[in-house]
Amino acid sequence: MVELKTPAELELMREAGKVVAAALAATKQAAAPGVSLRELDTIAAEVIAAKGAKSSFLHYHPHFAPTPFPGVICASVNDLVVHGIPNDYQLKEGDLVSIDCGAHVAGFHGDAAITFFIGEPAEEDARLSEHTREALYAGIAAAKVGNRLGDVSNAIGKVGRSHGYGLLAGYGGHGVGRKMHEEPHVPNEGKAGRGLKLRAGLVIAIEPMFIAGGRDTFTTDPDGWGLRSSDRTRAAHWEHTIAVTPDGPVILTEP
Question: What whole-number distance in Å separates Cα of residue 254 and Cα of residue 115?
Fold first, then answer.
């Protein structure tokens, strides 16, 4: 069931979104050669706690995972597309890093992701990240009252396919609210004019995940969480939680 949010509930989600934005900004600022993913996780945890919020990711245990998630961020480096467990890997010059973070305030969640680089990025990595971010904002622009979910999916997919990227098979965005993952599923590719009609109060996370090599396929790491591009090419991930409103889409996970 799709639950529409009231204006008061959207205000709470905006507060959660600000916490997520602050945690992401802090991890990006701290990321440097020699810094471990576990250290970035600690920094994000401290930001979330200092703001009186709680992590949406820590101990989250979906049906597909063998164990609860052990961190407050997903830290995915290079060919790891999503769901990377923050471990003792130390960042290196040239790494492409995607950080996904969620937090909840008064029972309502926010969820967002960014991609950035350690040092100067390779030109093809910079393009990959920029095009993935472009797709995110194309999807957001399509999230208008009266449009359909397929319009959002189509806008995302057109950007990715036009540049020859793969789209992580079976994965996309989702509803957000009292739970981090709610209905509806938001595919990263679809047909315009199809699917759920968008109404004011709908809150969704839009999250393109593009793979440089052009394949949609992936392998799962031994930990049961990390999803890695099957051709081992690099991937980027950008995400915002947004609300559909009468005045257009509103991003809830900005600073």
Answer: 15
CATH number at 16 reads 3.90.230.10
Rounded Cα distance, 139 and 121, in Å: 25
Domain membership of residue 201 (yes or no) is yes
> Is 247 within any annotated ligand binding site?
no
On whether 111 is known to bind a ligand per the annotation, the reply is yes
Both tokens assigned to 127 = 């393009």
99: tokens are 């950080």
pLDDT at 100: 98
| Predicted TM-score of the model (pTM) | 0.98
**Is 181 annotated as belonging to a binding site?**
yes
- Give, as one character, the DSSP assignment of residue 42: H
pLDDT in tens, 84-138: 999 999 999 999 999 999 999 999 999 999 999 999 999 999 999 999 999 999 9
| Residue at 229 is within a domain | yes
Q: Is 239 assigned to a binding site?
A: yes
Residue 128 lies in a domain: yes
Backbone angles phi, psi at 37, to 5 degrees: -65, -35
What is the reported pLDDT for 23?
98
- 104 annotated to a ligand binding site: no
What's the domain range around 166? 7-251
**How many domains is the chain built from?**
1
- Domain membership of residue 1 (yes or no) is no
Query: Would you say 83 is a known binding-site residue?
Result: yes
Ligand-binding annotation for 100, yes or no, is yes
